[in-house]
Amino acid sequence: MNEIVIEMPAIFSVQEAGDFREEIREWIQQGQYRFLLDFRSCSFIDSTGLGVIVSSYKKCVENGGGIRLGTLNANVRNIFELTRLTSVFEII
C-alpha cells in the first residue's frame, strides 16, 4: 500500500495534535499504516505533538508499517534530536 503524505500544521501543539490523532486514526481504521509527515510548514512542535506522533508510530509498526518525517526545519529537527527520536524515525 502507498505511503500517505500528511502536511503538518505551522504550530503542532495540543489542538493540532488532537486533529492529527483523529486523522491518522481514520487512516489506520481503513488499513493504512505507512505515512510521511511533511514538516515543510511546521516551525514548532510541543510534547503533546511528539507524543501523538510516537503513539501513532507504534500503532503503525504493530501492523507492519511506519512513519517517516520529511522537510524538518532546524527548530523542529532540534526537538527530535533532543528527545532522541531521530533514532526512532527515518528523517528524509
Write the layout of secondary structure elements.
Layout: E1 4-7, E2 11-12, H1 14-29, E3 34-38, E4 44-45, H2 47-62, E5 66-70, H3 74-82, E6 90-91
Parallel strand pairs: 1-3, 2-4, 3-5, 5-6
The CATH homologous superfamily is called STAS domain
Q: How many structural domains can be distinguished in the coordinates?
A: 1
CATH class: Alpha Beta
> What's the rounded overall pLDDT mean?
96
| Sequence stretches where pLDDT stays below 50 over 5 or more residues | none
Backbone shape: globular
CATH architecture label:
2-Layer Sandwich
Q: Let me know the number of strands.
A: 6
Largest sheet: 4 strands, parallel
Element-level helix/strand string: EEHEEHEHE
Q: How helical, in percent, are the residues?
A: 40-55%
CATH topology: Transcription Regulator spoIIAA
Separation of the first and last Cα atoms: 20 Å
- Computed structural class: alpha/beta
**Into which percentage range does the β-strand content fall?**
15-25%
Helix count from the secondary structure assignment: 3
Radius of gyration: 12 Å
Q: What does this entry show, briefly?
A:
The chain has helices spanning 14-29, 47-62, 74-82, and strands spanning 4-7, 11-12, 34-38, 44-45, 66-70, 90-91. The chain has 92 residues and is of the alpha/beta class.
Description:
The structure is a single chain. With about 90 residues, the chain is α/β, with parallel strands linked by helices. It has one domain (about 5-90): STAS domain (Transcription Regulator spoIIAA, 2-Layer Sandwich), CATH 3.30.750.24. It contains three helices and six strands. The strands form two sheets. Strands 1-3-5-6 form a four-stranded parallel beta sheet, with helices on one face. It has a two-stranded parallel sheet with strand order 2-4. Helix 1 packs parallel to helix 2. It is globular. The model has no long low-confidence stretch (mean pLDDT about 95).
